[in-house]
Amino acid sequence: MRIFQSQVTLAPTVRAAVDRQIRDRLLSIKPSPCFQPPLLQVYFAFTRPS
Prior knowledge:
By secondary structure, the chain is mostly helical. The chain has helices spanning 2-5, 11-28, 39-46. The protein is elongated and about 50 Å long.
């Protein structure tokens, strides 16, 4: 959209979209009995949810 229609996407919007995609992907992975804590919890340990 930026190239063809000259529409700008703000950084917070891009960040929120990427964050949502990462969370959705981590939630879709089945938990492994050998890996604790769950991957989503590890993700939250390294990011600050908004």
